[in-house]
Every structure is written in C-alpha cells, then in structure tokens.
Amino acid sequence: MKNKTILVVLILALLSPMVFANGQKDASSDGTKIVLLVKSLGNGFFEAVADGGKEAAGELDGVESIYMGPSAATAEGQIEIIETLIAQRVDGIAISANDPDALIPVAKKAMKAGIRVISFDSNISEGGREVALSPSDSELIGSQQVRLIAELCDYKGQIAILSATAQATNQNEWISYMYEAFKAPEYKDMEIVEVVYGDDAADKSYREAVGLFKKYPDLAGIISPTTVGVLATAKAIEDEGLKGKVQITGLGLPSEMQHYIENGTCGQMALWNPVDLGYSSIYILNAMIKGEVEGNPGDVISAGRMGTITIGEGGNSIMGEPFVFNKDNIAEYASIF
Ligand code: RAM
Questions:
Q1: Domain 138-271 maps to which CATH number in 3.30.1490.20, 3.50.50.60, 3.40.50.2300, 3.40.50.720?
Q2: For a substitution probing ligand 1, which of 226, 230, 249, 273 has the most ligand atoms within 8 Å of its CB?
Q3: Is the C-alpha dihedral spanning 51, 57, 58, 59 positive or negative?
Q4: pTM for this model (two decimals)
Q5: pLDDT of 204-246, one tens digit each?
Q6: Nearest C-alpha to atom 6 of ligand 1 is from which residue?
Q7: Domain spanning 18-135+274-319: which superfamily?
Q8: CA distances (Å), origin 262, targets 153, 169, 288
C-alpha cells in the first residue's frame, strides 16, 4: 500500500529570498514555543533530532525548540504530554508518533485550540496533523534494507526482522515494503521467518535478538529498522559469538554503530540525517505559525540550510535513498550523528 499521507519533499536547492506574508503570529515577547515530541526519551536518534531543532531555533527570531517525550514509546504517554501542552498553549507541536491513529483525537483537540500540529519521522494519519514530514520514500527504505541484508547473506537463508513497537507508523510501513521487495526473483532463496518487537528499548531489543538466535539456529540475518534495535542486535551477536554467522543490517546511527561496523559485526547499514529532520520540522512549523504558509500541498517553505521544502501530495515523492554506511565511511559520519 502506498503511503497516502501528505509527504514533504525536501528539495536541496539554493535558498530563494524569503518573502514574509502577513503573519498570524509575530515573534512576540514571550516567543514562539515549538515542541518536538518524540517517541521516547533516551534514544540517540531523537537527541540528534533535538540538536537540529535547536540549530533551527537559533536561526529564527524568537523561536524556542522544546524537546519532550514519554519515558517509554507508548501512545498513552504521548497523549498525556499533548494534553499538558494544550493547557500550556504552546504554538506548535511536531510529533514522531507511537501510533498512527491513537493520537488523532488529542491532536485534533490541540489544533482546535489553535496549536499547529505536524508529524515527522513516524507519522500520524490524515486528520491528526496538518503536514507529515517523512525522511525518505518508505518503499525505497524497505527495499534498500532487503538489498543490504541480501548482500550480507549471499542472497540466501532465513531472515528475521527486529522492529521498534508493534504500532510504529514508520517501521510498519517499511516492513510492509520489505515483504513486497522479498517477492523479487533474486531473493527466492531467502524468507522472512518472523517479525519481533524490541519497543525501542535496548534491553527488550537485546532479549528479542537472543530469542531469535535460540528459536532459529540456522538464522542467516536480522534486519532491524530502528537505531535502538540494530545496536542491541549487534551487541547480542557479538556477545553470543555469532559474528559472521548471523548478519545484521538496519537503520543505525553511525555514532552508536561505529564499533560494530569497524569490527565487521554489521557489514553495512543505512540512515538519513536525524539532525535535518529536527531542523526542518522547526522551520515548517514556524512558517505555519507565522502565517507564511498554510501547510497545503504546493506550499514552499524556506528552510535555512535545507533550502526549500515543498509540501507535496501522495506518497510518490522521493527525497533520495538513505545513506549507506560501511567500514570505509563510518568514522567520517560518527562524529556528526
Ligand atoms: C528509532 C526510532 C525512529 C526511527 C529510527 C530509524 O530511533 O524508531 O522512529 O526513525 O529508529
């Protein structure tokens, strides 16, 4: 199924001069408060998102980027926080959602109260946000993950997927495209045996990985499309002495995975720059809050070093393939995110 959300395409173009329309809200004395509400705290990926948010806020007049998230990756935790933010009357919320649908009622309530709401990274379904910012095309992410594990496993064997939470919008979309990709003839000797969920918690992810090794003694590889899961799985492979026997790929932060890439536990993995996601989210919401754009398809937002961001419709827009990291380039990126 194609992603039906409004997808924002980041066009890396030269900055055109910004034209300010009559704003709905000026940078007032108390400033513009934008919250980056993430799936859960303690996740390095979202800490990098927060860095990007701070960077953008520093470039914008009177804008504050506030980083928040529940302690565990649950929709309930995010709903509670959004209720508080409605009471506090913040100006905008960018949400990486733990559930595409469960957040819709509270997000609607926030929008009704005049708060501008977008989702990023892991999106809320239509009706629960004004704009959905995706890092890349979901189909591209899914098929690339399959290609990476196939290359590591010589195109044969049993593959498991170790995901984040069972309701995560982004991982579920990517996984559905992984199943599609595996139908291609070049993967005929590979099969997905199971999908397990580590809930973006290091300890649960680690236990799930060890459980897979026990349950599938012939397991050839694991795809973990979460920065928390791929790190925990690499550690489990090393600890269990399975380096070289069980392959791992996924979406990993270079700063967290450098050790495992350099020692060969993880031959290759992919990701986009999470700093850019936080940076872009703040620029998009600021433009909406100030009335420079409505957030409709076709709207073009000037977004600092990202160039212009165009709001598109449907899921056919592609920012580009996530970047692939291996032994040759990991050190270069590990210092950035
Ligand atoms: C984890 C989160 C996040 C996802 C990355 C790749 O940090 O699940 O939503 O985009 O992995």
A1: 3.40.50.2300
A2: 226
A3: positive
A4: 0.91
A5: 999 999 999 999 999 999 999 999 999 999 999 999 999 999 9
A6: 226
A7: Response regulator (3.40.50.2300)
A8: 18, 31, 43
